Amino acid sequence: MNEADIDLLSLTAKLYxxxxxxxxxxxxxxxxSRSTVSRLLARARxxxxxxxSINHYAPRNLEVEEALCKYLGLQRAIVVRTFAEGNIxxxxxxxxxxxxxxxxxxxxxxxxxxxxGGRTIYDLVRYMQPRKTPSSAMVVQLMGNIGPRVGQIDxxxxxxxxAAKLGGVFYTMSAPVFAHDIQTRDLFLASPQVQELLRxxxxxxxxxxxxxxxxxxxxxxxxxxxxxxxxxxxxxxxVGEICGxxxxxxxxxxxxxxxxxxxxxxxxRLIATKEVIAVTNGADRAEAICAAVRGGIVKGLVIDETGAxxxxxxxxxxxxxxxxx
Amino acid sequence: MNEADIDLLSLTAKLYxxxxxxxxxxxxxxxxSRSTVSRLLARARxxxxxxxSINHYAPRNLEVEEALCKYLGLQRAIVVRTFAEGNIxxxxxxxxxxxxxxxxxxxxxxxxxxxxGGRTIYDLVRYMQPRKTPSSAMVVQLMGNIGPRVGQIDxxxxxxxxAAKLGGVFYTMSAPVFAHDIQTRDLFLASPQVQELLRxxxxxxxxxxxxxxxxxxxxxxxxxxxxxxxxxxxxxxxVGEICGxxxxxxxxxxxxxxxxxxxxxxxxRLIATKEVIAVTNGADRAEAICAAVRGGIVKGLVIDETGAxxxxxxxxxxxxxxxxx
DNA sequence: GGAGATTATGCACATATGTGCATGAAATTG
DNA sequence: CAATTTCATGCACATATGTGCATAATCTCC
Lengths: 325, 325
Description:
With 325 residues, the first copy, chain A, is of the alpha/beta class. Chain A has 2 domains: 3-46, Arc Repressor Mutant, subunit A, CATH 1.10.10; 62-314, Rossmann fold, CATH 3.40.50. Chain A is 44% helix and 13% strand. Chain A has 14 helices and 10 strands. Chain A has helices at residues 3-18, 23-30, 34-46, 62-72, 88-105, 119-126, 155-166, 182-190, 192-201, 218-221, 227-235, 267-271, 286-294, 305-314; strands at residues 50-54, 76-80, 112-115, 138-141, 169-171, 206-209, 240-242, 245-247, 275-279, 300-304. The longest helix of chain A is centred in the N-terminal third of the chain and has 18 residues, at 88-105. Chain A is elongated and about 80 Å long. Residues 318-325 of chain A have low confidence and may be disordered. Chain A binds chain B through residues 2-8, 10-11, 13-15, 17-18, 28-31, 44, 48-59, 81-87, 89-90, 93-94, 97, 324, and chain B through 2-8, 10-11, 13-15, 17-18, 28-31, 44, 48-59, 81, 83-87, 89-90, 93-94, 97, 324. Strand 1 (50-54) of chain A pairs antiparallel with strand 1 of chain B. The structure holds a DNA duplex (30 and 30 nucleotides).
């Protein structure tokens, strides 16, 4: 690349980005085909002759992140700025998109990663950039399947996608999340396939989990639990759920009939895992999140601004960002 | 525009310019139609959330411009950087495009501007940005028409275009550049239309002129002069031509049969005009340009780098920019 | 200096983008 | 609070842009 080339790139860039000529007009001036103009522009961006900067831009609310770490006692918080007009679907996508890069960075190439299901996790994993070089990561499904019909937001699907993005290996849990009874559960747990997963759980470094609440439960929606079941759980003190494990306000597992039917990672195992990151959104998860953190299950959080402020309010801190309406 | 709007613009800009998502993908994330994404991006650029800068970019060679002013004694020089690969057509367009803005800036809204013909002037005027508010400029055709058949690069056409760009009034010279004989010329000069032009010449503030050379003469090309005529002119010491006026190495008008047939601005008039800017390109005009400047006709110059270096070499200065080939 | 490899270019196509128009929502005025 | 205006949005179309492929130009190595 000589000086004349750089002049040409600069001229092309000026005509395009400063003077707003279209590529055809530029082609006429500098005497090349329009395709070449397109390529010259790409090159000018590439080598930094053209720099595009976005001013004052902060996709995350670092202030709130710090507050969450400080007051809630998190190791890691990712609070994604959202905008008032966004509906729930778009908020989830925005959170997923912005958090994807940060989460990808905390997953080492040789790690054992577990993942559960969830709508926000779905978007997070979906928007993750594929790793340039395949990793030796092992991606483990943390909980059994909700039903035979696999939805996009189920753990199996998400673990599969995550493995593809990381270029790693996907380990599936061939079992239902709730076995019919304790004996059946033991049969599943004793199966070689599940056994291998349980051994991987011992080496778990990063876990991505959703936070379920009874008011809006995937289990009820999928007719694994009836609304009455949910109500009973509520009465027993359940405030949230992670990987099929129901916990109370202190983050301790509640003694329910389902407790001994779950095929999936145990809360103890999650408590012993360093990076357990809850990925969620919205204000209605505040209580459950606080409980899960209190119980030592969750150490990191990915959430939207509104949800984060709800948590801070629940903690008695005033919102750090005035809500715009 | 509230803070949430700015967040949204910033996010959109990041997704588009930093992450290279297409507008559809962005629309899906932020929850608006793709059209709106297009509009958001335009707005983000508009209000400066996105800034696009072109580094190290210098469309003009200021060093050579200074040298021309210093050694040739110009008031004003615009030397446009060109690139080795460009053919003559593209060099002209580049010179025209880059010089257009600078020239436009030196034409006040209320001025009397004269223009002759020429290929480079054609491109210069063509690429000039139309003035936002119409001016009261008067644009005067400095010389008669070469023939009845009007070409794009003729004075009449260029003056017309320039008037349109400035939003001013166009004054045409209803006469041939060379009358048949001195009596005919006097008839043209006596006509009220030409008289009005002559009065405007007295008020001329800016003149854009081409520089003709006999080796590559528009008059020969248009069969107004024969190659033999051109050769005779050469023998009489003609090195160049401006507005149909042939001048020698000192920039003095040469006594030729054509001298008294020209219907157009006189050299004296041009000498008395402050901003007489020659607009041209290429190395073969060096001698003629030097002569015109020496004679006090031309005070400003628009030219390409190669042409500028040829002038400096002709002046005995070494080229200020090593030619890349 | 010539043969092969590498790079640059243009064409043609598929995709991405900008924009006039119609519609609906929000703001403003009486 | 209704009527009117203004503004924002989506649709559909025309235009602008990026890119695989074939070809031409240039470089490299012997």
